[in-house]
C-alpha cells in the first residue's frame, strides 16, 4: 500500500510539474474592434492578462466597465508598461501601423507577439518585424478569423489528398457592407479608414485573408504575377481609402482571384477551390460542399456540416500560449506563421502598387 501511495504521489507531482504556468499576457491597444475576443475570454489556466497599454483613458474606462478588468493594470505606453511588469507575450489590438512599434519594444526583451491581421501596413515594415523576430528569437504570429474555420482546414486537406485533382483556380471572397454601415466604434473607424494607419482600405483589411489562405494552400509558393484594381464606391464613408478591390494572382499551374470588399450586401468569408476533377466550396465556418464532375455539366455533390476546430485551434490565444510553451508546433506556412505572412505582405504590397500604377507586378 505504501508503495502504491508513493507512486501515486510521484505521478501527481509529475503532472503538476508538467503543467506550464499561465502565460503572462499584455494587451497592447484597445481600439481594434476584435479586442473583445481577448477581453471577454473565459478564465483559463493557460493565460493571465497582467496588463493593458492604452493612452485613451476614456476608452480604457469604458471597456473596463464593460469587461470588468481593473484600471490599475492600464498603462499609457509600452515603455511605462515594461518598466512596471515583465510579460511573456503581447497581443496587439491597436492600429496596424503600431505593430512594428510593439515588436520593436518587445523583441529585445524576448517577449513574444501576436498581432491582428494583417502583419503590417507595408512590406518594408514586415521585413523589419521579421528581422527583429529572427535576431531575438521570438514568435510573431498573425491572427486570422479564417484560421479558426474547420471548413478551410478540411477543404485544404481534401485538395491535398487529391479529391479534386490538380488545382487550377481559387476564388476567395471576404468582406461586409463597410465599417460605417456595420457600425464599428469611432476609435476603430478612425484608423481603419486611414491609409497610413491601416495600409489601405478593403484591399488590406480583407485582401489579406485571401493572400494568407492562398499561401497556406500552396505551402508557401509566391505568385508569379499580381494584378489589382480598386474602386471607391462609398466616397462619403471612406474618402481616403479604397472600399472595393479585385486581386488576381498567377502561379505556374493555377491562379487565384481575391475579392475583398466593403460593399458586399451580406458579410462573407468564403472560398472555392477548382481542380481538374471537381470543386470544393468552403461556404462559411461550418458548411463545406464537394462537387465531382460527371460528363459535361453533371456532378455529384456531398455536403459536410462541421463543428469548430479542436483545442487549441478553436482559440487563437490558446494557440499562442501553446506555441510559446512548446506544446504545439505549427506546420510550415500555416495561417499564423511569420513565413506565410511575409508572403502575404508581399502580395498585398504588390496589389497596392498594381492598383496605383495600373500595371501587373512581376514577382518571379
From TrEMBL:
SUPFAM superfamilies, sorted: Glyceraldehyde-3-phosphate dehydrogenase-like, C-terminal domain, NAD(P)-binding Rossmann-fold domains
Record-linked Gene3D superfamilies: Dihydrodipicolinate Reductase, domain 2 (3.30.360.10), NAD(P)-binding Rossmann-like Domain (3.40.50.720)
Highest taxon, organism lineage: Bacteria
Protein keywords: Signal
Keyword hit for Signal: yes
UniProt key word Signal: yes
Protein name: Oxidoreductase
Amino acid at each position: 500500500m505504501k508503495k502504491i501511495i508513493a507512486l501515486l504521489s510521484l505521478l501527481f507531482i509529475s503532472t503538476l510539474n508538467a503543467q506550464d504556468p499561465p502565460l503572462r499576457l499584455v494587451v497592447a491597444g484597445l481600439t481594434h474592434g476584435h479586442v473583445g475576443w481577448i477581453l471577454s475570454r473565459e478564465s483559463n489556466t493557460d493565460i493571465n492578462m497582467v496588463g493593458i497599454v492604452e493612452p485613451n483613458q476614456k476608452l480604457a474606462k469604458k471597456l473596463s466597465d464593460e469587461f470588468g478588468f481593473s484600471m490599475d493594470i492600464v498603462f499609457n505606453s509600452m515603455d511605462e508598461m515594461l518598466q512596471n511588469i515583465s510579460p511573456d507575450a503581447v497581443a496587439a489590438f491597436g492600429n496596424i501601423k503600431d505593430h512594428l512599434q510593439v515588436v520593436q519594444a518587445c523583441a529585445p526583451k524576448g517577449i513574444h507577439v501576436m498581432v491582428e491581421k494583417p502583419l503590417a501596413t507595408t512590406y518594408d515594415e514586415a521585413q523589419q518585424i521579421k528581422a527583429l523576430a529572427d535576431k531575438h528569437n521570438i514568435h510573431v504570429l498573425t491572427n486570422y478569423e479564417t484560421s479558426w474555420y474547420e471548413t478551410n482546414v478540411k477543404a485544404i486537406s481534401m485538395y491535398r489528398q487529391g479529391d479534386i485533382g490538380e488545382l487550377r483556380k481559387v476564388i476567395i471572397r471576404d468582406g461586409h457592407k463597410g465599417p460605417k454601415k456595420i457600425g464599428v466604434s469611432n476609435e476603430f473607424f478612425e484608423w481603419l479608414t486611414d491609409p497610413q494607419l491601416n495600409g489601405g482600405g478593403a484591399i488590406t483589411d480583407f485582401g489579406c485573408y485571401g493572400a494568407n489562405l492562398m499561401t497556406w494552400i500552396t505551402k508557401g509558393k509566391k505568385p508569379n504575377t499580381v494584378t489589382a484594381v480598386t474602386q471607391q464606391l462609398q466616397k462619403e464613408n471612406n474618402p481616403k481609402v479604397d472600399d472595393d478591390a479585385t486581386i488576381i494572382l498567377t502561379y505556374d499551374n493555377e491562379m487565384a482571384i481575391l475579392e475583398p470588399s466593403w460593399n458586399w450586401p451580406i458579410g462573407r468569408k468564403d472560398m472555392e477551390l477548382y481542380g481538374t476533377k471537381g470543386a470544393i466550396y468552403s461556404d462559411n465556418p461550418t458548411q463545406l460542399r464537394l462537387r465531382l464532375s460527371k460528363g459535361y455539366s453533371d456532378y455529384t455533390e456531398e455536403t459536410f456540416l462541421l463543428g469548430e476546430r479542436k483545442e487549441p485551434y478553436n482559440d487563437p490565444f490558446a494557440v499562442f500560449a501553446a506555441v510559446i510553451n512548446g506544446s504545439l508546433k505549427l506546420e510550415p506556412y500555416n495561417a499564423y506563421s511569420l513565413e506565410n505572412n511575409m508572403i502575404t505582405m508581399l502580395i498585398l504590397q504588390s496589389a497596392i502598387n498594381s492598383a496605383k500604377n495600373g500595371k501587373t507586378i512581376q514577382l518571379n
